[in-house]
Amino acid sequence: MAQWIHMSQMIQCLPDDTINSLYPPTAFPIEVRHFLAEWIESQRWDDFALEKVEQESQAQALLDQTINMLQSIAQQNANVVDRMKLMQISRNMTMFQQQPLQFGVMVRDILRKEIVLLSTPPQLPNPPQYPQYQNRQSSHPNMQDVDHLVLKVLDVQEIRQKMHHLQEELNWERENYEGPMQQNGLDPAKSEIQKLQNRIQQLEYNVKAMATKRFQLLKESVDFLDQCQTRLISRLKAWRWEQHKAAIGHPFDENLNPLQTWCEQLLGVNGKLRQELMLIGEPIPELQERLGQLLQVLIQSSLVVEKQPPQVIKTQSKFSTTVRYLLGEKVAPGKPVVLKAQIINELQARNLGSVPGDNVGELINNTAILEHNTSSKSTCATFRNMSIKKIKRADRKGSESVTEEKFALLFSTEISITGCDTPYRIQMISLPVVVIVHGSQDNNALATIIWDCAFSEADRVPFVVPERVPWRMMYSTLNSKFTSEVGTKHNLDQYNQHFLAQKIFDKPDFADDYSNTMVSWAQFNKEVLPGRPFTFWQWFEGVMELTKKHLKTYWSEGLIFGFIGKQHLHLILKDRPNGTFLLRFSDSEIGGITIAYVSASENGGQKIQNIQPFTKRDLDIRSLGDRIRDIGHITHLYPEFPKHEVFKKFYTEPQLPLNGGYIPVSLQTKVGAEAGSATQPPPGMAFNDDTGLRLHPICCILSSVSPFLFLQTGG
């Protein structure tokens, strides 16, 4: 097992595509290597070769042992997600039953590749997912840096005080020794004169030496202040960057208090150093100019949009946003500071240094006063009831729609800081926003924002984004957004990833790795999916909303298989007993979940059927758990969990009426294309190639309902 111990540490530094290449997800997933590590390394795999037919029985024995151990580990695992996954893997590995030697050679090659990797010095990869600012660890300042800077300033102050004392002593020596001797006509000995002269010369030398040291310390202090402030500005940018990424579910520490403390400390140091320069008596233009520039940058960089406006804004709708000034306690008292907001387009955002040109939109309630909160020690301007009355759009390029055009809010004011002679003009823009005029545009506008948040680069030209990105980046974004929006820690798995890739690239038969395949913005949300009236994003977002509102617990506990293609579905269900079912998201209907199950066919064999997808409206009427309970002919959740054990806690009371009670029902089923059913729909009904049959509501006696039909109350 020693080899796996080292390997498990190394894989944390390997890119995903390398790991998937080493441990093929569909053949020998990494879970097999992990759970059977000790046993695998104790077997003899090196002897296997495809041409050695005599070893087939030995390979078959090892394959059988592998499958049995995986099933045993699965049964003993208390985590239902791990248990189901291991059972699924064990079923998938039966594909080697016809070619056990191929299994033995595969494991042999995996172990050899591990040895090669372990003999190579590890290199930390540069994750391609998202451009990153330097690792800031946290928003807290490096207190050692700040302390070091403060000590340097104290050294400057201390040497100034020593110089002052030396100068006083020198003045006293000149006044009390030379002056009175000349006035009284005294004629001291030459040795005394020499002694006095030496004393005065030494004092003069010491004063000059301290002046040189003082200048050097001042220069070092300004240099170090510059370095500390550069790190602060970098941290502020990193905070804004993480705030941007939070829109797609990335973790974000919104606490600005440590950064505010850092700003205040650097402002205080800047003021003390400027004071020290004034006390020198002689101007030092170089240091004065640098401190002035540092002061201006600090004052202008301390304006932060603490609470961003919604990134999709509908005209005539109210919204709020909060702007915080990190040097609020240092604002000069007197005239209140009023912040003004205006909406700007992409071109104006690229030219913030110049005066904005045409007004591209009209904002209502676009001013707010900067107010200090003594309890939180924060100084904020809150725009509580802002709205966009109208918007002026730019000329669109080609097929670009209004939901692809990005704007931003620009916040600006003039501010005076205590201890500074002149006021400063400060401004800050919000994250990009998309302005819509109708709720039907919301979904497409959100797609624009998701693409911008996920794939924009740090310090980009506003609001440039790439037209294409690798699938691995797209999948990472989808997984992050899905888990954060639903509020779950249960990620999409490799099977979900593969199906999503097959869907967006329209390659249902493609089995290779998609990681480096480029996916375009058009494939994401401009082109409709083949045979469907909606885009990939519209379909995915519908699933996300359904899961968030009705299926969160089911998904979090691993009870929903989720995204799975029909080929994979038939592969894993084809040998299961009648009544085995799994829950998957509909790939033909926006926001639908369906039940795929094994049933008996007319010729005595088996067929796989899919029940009409349940939508949000259906689950508002009756929960998924109750619907599963109602369907008598589905008995075991894949791979083999009794449904009443798994879903019992989701059943609600009271139960449906029994003993022939009459209820309104909607009878629905979806017949898989592979089932070859000859059932004809009644008059007024139509088949749908993915959604199946839909019958008109009727009334029937519950006890006589066919097991191939399910109940839908309230409709």
From TrEMBL:
<dbReference type="InterPro" id="IPR013801">
    <property type="entry name" value="STAT_TF_DNA-bd"/>
</dbReference>
<feature type="domain" description="SH2">
    <location>
        <begin position="555"/>
        <end position="655"/>
    </location>
</feature>
<dbReference type="InterPro" id="IPR001217">
    <property type="entry name" value="STAT"/>
</dbReference>
<keyword id="KW-0963">Cytoplasm</keyword>
<dbReference type="InterPro" id="IPR015988">
    <property type="entry name" value="STAT_TF_CC"/>
</dbReference>
<dbReference type="InterPro" id="IPR000980">
    <property type="entry name" value="SH2"/>
</dbReference>
<dbReference type="Pfam" id="PF02865">
    <property type="entry name" value="STAT_int"/>
</dbReference>
<keyword id="KW-0597">Phosphoprotein</keyword>
<dbReference type="GO" id="GO:0005737">
    <property type="term" value="C:cytoplasm"/>
</dbReference>
<dbReference type="GO" id="GO:0000977">
    <property type="term" value="F:RNA polymerase II transcription regulatory region sequence-specific DNA binding"/>
</dbReference>
<dbReference type="InterPro" id="IPR036860">
    <property type="entry name" value="SH2_dom_sf"/>
</dbReference>
<dbReference type="Pfam" id="PF02864">
    <property type="entry name" value="STAT_bind"/>
</dbReference>
<comment type="similarity">
    <text>Belongs to the transcription factor STAT family.</text>
</comment>
<dbReference type="Pfam" id="PF21354">
    <property type="entry name" value="STAT_linker"/>
</dbReference>
<keyword id="KW-0539">Nucleus</keyword>
<protein>
    <recommendedName>
        <fullName>Signal transducer and activator of transcription</fullName>
    </recommendedName>
</protein>
<dbReference type="InterPro" id="IPR008967">
    <property type="entry name" value="p53-like_TF_DNA-bd_sf"/>
</dbReference>
<dbReference type="GO" id="GO:0005634">
    <property type="term" value="C:nucleus"/>
</dbReference>
<dbReference type="Pfam" id="PF01017">
    <property type="entry name" value="STAT_alpha"/>
</dbReference>
<keyword id="KW-0175">Coiled coil</keyword>
<dbReference type="InterPro" id="IPR013800">
    <property type="entry name" value="STAT_TF_alpha"/>
</dbReference>
<dbReference type="GO" id="GO:0001228">
    <property type="term" value="F:DNA-binding transcription activator activity, RNA polymerase II-specific"/>
</dbReference>
<dbReference type="InterPro" id="IPR036535">
    <property type="entry name" value="STAT_N_sf"/>
</dbReference>
<dbReference type="GO" id="GO:0007166">
    <property type="term" value="P:cell surface receptor signaling pathway"/>
</dbReference>
<dbReference type="InterPro" id="IPR013799">
    <property type="entry name" value="STAT_TF_prot_interaction"/>
</dbReference>
<dbReference type="InterPro" id="IPR048988">
    <property type="entry name" value="STAT_linker"/>
</dbReference>
<dbReference type="InterPro" id="IPR012345">
    <property type="entry name" value="STAT_TF_DNA-bd_N"/>
</dbReference>
<dbReference type="Pfam" id="PF00017">
    <property type="entry name" value="SH2"/>
</dbReference>
<keyword id="KW-0804">Transcription</keyword>
<feature type="coiled-coil region">
    <location>
        <begin position="156"/>
        <end position="213"/>
    </location>
</feature>
<keyword id="KW-0727">SH2 domain</keyword>
<keyword id="KW-0805">Transcription regulation</keyword>
<keyword id="KW-0238">DNA-binding</keyword>
<keyword id="KW-0010">Activator</keyword>
